[in-house]
Amino acid sequence: MASKRILGAVTAAMALGMTLTACSGSADAPVTTDSTTPVTMQFWHNSTTGDGAAYWQQTVKEFQTAHPNVTIKITAIQNEDMDGKLQTAFNSGTAPDIFMARGGGKLADVVHADMVMDLTDKISADTKSAYGDAIFSTFTVDGKVYGMPTSVLPDGIYYSKELFKKAGIDTPPTTMAELSDAVTKLKAAGITPIALGGKDAWPAAHWYYLLALRACSQDVLTSKAMGGDFSDPCWTKAGEDLKAFADTKPFNEGFLTTSAQQGAGSSAGLLANHKAAMELMGAWEPGVVGSLTPDEKPLPDLGWFPFPSVEGGQGDAKAMIGGADGYSCSKKAPAVCADFLNFAAQKSQQEGYAKAFNTLPANQQAQSVVTDPALKDNLTAYNDASYVVLFLDTLYGQNVGNALNGGVVDLLAGKGQPADIVKAAQAAASKG
Questions:
Q1: CA distances from 285 to 46, 99, 156, 366 (A)
Q2: Residue 420: helix, strand or coil by DSSP?
Q3: Which of 141, 158, 223, 371 has its CA 20 to 30 A from that of 34?
Q4: DSSP character at residue 175
Q5: CA-to-CA distance for 329 and 220, rounded, in angstroms?
Q6: pLDDT (0 to 100) of residue 78
Q7: C-alpha distance from residue 264 to each of 251, 252, 261, 270 (Å)
Q8: Rounded distance, CA 418 to CA 388, Å?
Q9: Rounded distance, CA 44 to CA 100, Å?
């Protein structure tokens, strides 16, 4: 099962001393709330349109039917704006009761500021059984759980089988040399090889993360980097590998001003409309791409393959980088907030989530509804991964994450060198 490896590297990195099996929550109803006192909660999520927005509206409606005293007011915020708006809200004391969280250092920052509800004893036995212990490590800080996962999001390269065939590419690349060869063939066929939404920074940084995953050992990525040590030469090697690859001009024209997910002109839109052959993204990609096709249906020729191996790297070729979307309750939220998270974690709700977002649900019992071929391949590789490391900008926290992301963009823009990425990350880590 996926839970054996999900974000195992994060568990080690954060030195977790407690798993959910040690929780003392009750069997099925972990929170006792007053069912008559009127309660209003603010709920922020990142699905602004389509089936995803409809899913959350329906889920809230069903929860309110079961809890007539509860009113949940939804605010949908564009994904790239979420972190900034949340930070502003926390700083001003106006944070929503239910908010999107991705764990790691970013969540730890607000936990240490005493702004997040401890869910350790509020997660039901049913939820723990359906999810498994390991996935909660992403949302665990100092041995306590502060978030409920909704999806698992391993990275990889999504591609158009039709465009690969047109370019004479018979099988997906397994090495960086083969990926470079595929780029050459696609360009010769008049096809943009890779879509990249560099305007949003993190999609560009993901290329560096994956190259670092191949260049660096698990210990360097987790234990040492979590301690603020970026001295290993593998960090510079990852930047050198990225620069060498970028110099072959594999990305769409104007990639530095292209957004990742907003409209047909975004990087996801280029793949959705066969304007580019590949995009490096997490398991949310099929749903995003499907929303941007001309008929707003899943791209029928969408495929997936794991990030290629790198010659001479210290990292395992079967290791993956990924994340888990989820939701947390603010410290000031009413107790029924935890009830809502448990409600959304149920098998039926998670099946609906997986279908609405065309992604991989966190609840293992709901994963049987995944039918998209690209997602099934992604899930198979995820379950077979030697270890999985959390997205680096999430794992290391906002300061180091922003330094990494900015350094990568500068490199791709010709304004920096590979060593500058490492210097920026080290400087940010030193500031704490």
A1: 14, 22, 10, 19
A2: helix
A3: 141
A4: B
A5: 32
A6: 87
A7: 16, 14, 8, 6
A8: 24
A9: 7
The answer to whether residues 321 and 154 touch, using CB atoms and an 8 Å cutoff, is: yes
β-strand pairing of 360-361 with 148-152:
antiparallel
Alpha helices by DSSP H, 167-279: 176-188, 202-215, 218-219, 225-226, 234-246, 267-272
319/322 Cα distance (integer angstroms): 10
In Å, the largest CA–CA distance within the chain is 68
3-state DSSP assignment of residue 71: strand
Quick one: DSSP state of residue 274? Answer: T
What is the C-alpha to C-alpha distance for residues 88 and 67, in angstroms, rounded to an integer?
31
Question: Tokens 């066969």 sit at which residue?
Answer: 274
In the block, which residue shows the tokens 């957004």? 259
Nearest to 364 by CA among 344, 345, 381: 345
Give CA–CA dist 401/395, Å, rounded: 8
Q: Which of 330, 318, 325 is nearest to 345 (CA)?
A: 325
Q: What angle do CA 277, 311, 378 make, to 5 degrees?
A: 45
**Are the beta carbons of 136 and 126 closer than 8 angstroms?**
no
Task: List alpha helices for 260-300, DSSP H.
Answer: 267-272, 285-292
Q: What local confidence, expressed as pLDDT, does residue 34 receive?
A: 58
Return the amino acid letter for 177.
A
C-beta neighbour count of 142 within 10 angstroms:
14
What average pLDDT values come out for the chain (432 residues) when binned by 10 residues?
38 32 33 72 91 95 96 92 91 94 87 95 92 86 94 96 98 97 98 97 97 97 92 97 98 97 94 98 94 94 97 93 93 96 96 93 94 94 91 91 97 97 96 77
Could you tell me if 70 and 63 are in contact, meaning their C-beta atoms sit under 8 angstroms apart? yes
What is the C-alpha to C-alpha distance for residues 196 and 336, in angstroms, rounded to an integer? 41
**Token digits for 381?**
């590789």
CA dist 7 and 132 (Å) reads: 12
For Cα atoms 105, 126, 57, give the angle at the middle one, nearest 5 degrees.
70
Positive/negative CA dihedral, 133, 137, 142, 147: negative
Using DSSP bridges, classify how beta strands 302-305 and 320-322 pair: parallel, antiparallel or unpaired: unpaired
370 and 308 in contact (C-beta within 8 Å)?
no
Strands 148-152 and 278-281 come out as: unpaired
Burial of 371: CB neighbours in 10 Å, binned 0-12, 13-18, 19+: exposed
- Residue 351: C-alpha distances to residues 177, 264, 291 (Å): 39, 28, 19
Structure-block tokens of residue 84: 């900034």
